[in-house]
Design goal:
Elements (H helix, E strand, L loop, with lengths): L3 H15 L8 E6 L4 E7 L4 E7 L12 H21 L6 E3 L8 H12 L4
Helix pairs in contact: 2-3
Length: about 120
């Protein structure tokens, strides 16, 4: 029996076979834990992180563990990372959901990034 984590890692490997980030169009990678969410822009050609953001860094109104606050924080993380990307003259990215389903907080990060001006 595979654990939930092992199944997610296998799904992420399948996604990573297709998704590659470049200098002009980096990979927008999302990771979520039970309590926090992280996002970063990665250039896979050089293996360098261009920009990153998390709900630990941004100023949330109230750090809370209820689901509505987590979704709001996730959207703020996406918006913050989009601002950092536009400062570095990056407007297009490739989205990497990290093996997670594209619902809830992962979708909120993507929506926040789109509001911030990134194109997927």
């Amino acid at each position: 029996m595979k654990t939930k984590r092992e199944k997610r890692i296998n799904r992420h490997r399948k996604v990573r076979m297709k998704v590659k980030g470049t200098k002009d169009r980096p990979r927008f990678c999302v990771f979520k834990s039970n309590s926090h969410i992280y996002a970063q822009l990665i250039n896979d050609e050089t293996g360098k992180t261009i920009a990153s953001s998390s709900d630990l860094v941004i100023e949330a109104e109230k750090p809370s563990t209820n689901s509505f606050a987590k979704v709001a924080n996730a959207q703020a993380v996406g918006f913050d990372l989009a601002k950092k990307a536009l400062d570095k003259k990056i407007s297009q990215v490739v989205f990497d959901r990290g093996g997670f389903l594209f619902t809830g907080r992962v979708k909120a990060v993507a929506d926040g990034a789109r509001e911030g001006g990134l194109k997927f």
